[in-house]
Amino acid sequence: MKRLLIITTVCLLLPAFAYANPATLNHPGRTLAANCFQCHGTDGYGMEHLAGERVSEIVDELQEMQFEPARKDIMAVHAQAYTAEEIKLIADYFSKQPK
Predict the structure, then answer these.
(1) Structural domain of 82
(2) Could you tell me if 80 and 87 are in contact, meaning their C-beta atoms sit under 8 angstroms apart?
(3) Half-sphere exposure (CA, 13 Å, Cβ side) for 99?
(4) Confidence of residue 89 (pLDDT cuts 50, 70, 90)
């Protein structure tokens, strides 16, 4: 049973690391960006591509979402949960992913 749990855990976590940019595996924004991975991918190539975008562009978009009170979609909810510093770390992480 314990062996099955270990194998299952490894199989579930492997995809998250298989496509990650090795240069950013220890980036402080990576953990914060984990909420983004479901849609944007660990490498920034999901539904909306973030890989290689300018930090300022990502920051501006997230800050717009933070201060748009009528907006209630998932992006606004995530954006509103982060501090300005956390948003910069997330933006920096995605900006360092290769285009």
Answers:
(1) 2-95
(2) no
(3) 3
(4) very high
Cβ pair 59, 87 in contact under 8 A? yes
Buried b / exposed e over 16-37, threshold 16 CB at 10 Å, is eeeebbeebeebebbebbeebe
User: What letter would DSSP give residue 87?
Assistant: H
**Residue reference for tokens 């960006």:** 33
CATH of residue 38's domain is 1.10.760.10
Number of domains in the chain: 1
Q: Is the full-model pTM beyond 0.85?
A: no
Question: What is the longest distance spanned by two Cα atoms in the chain?
Answer: 49
* pLDDT tens profile 17-64: 445 566 677 788 999 999 899 999 888 888 888 999 999 999 999 999
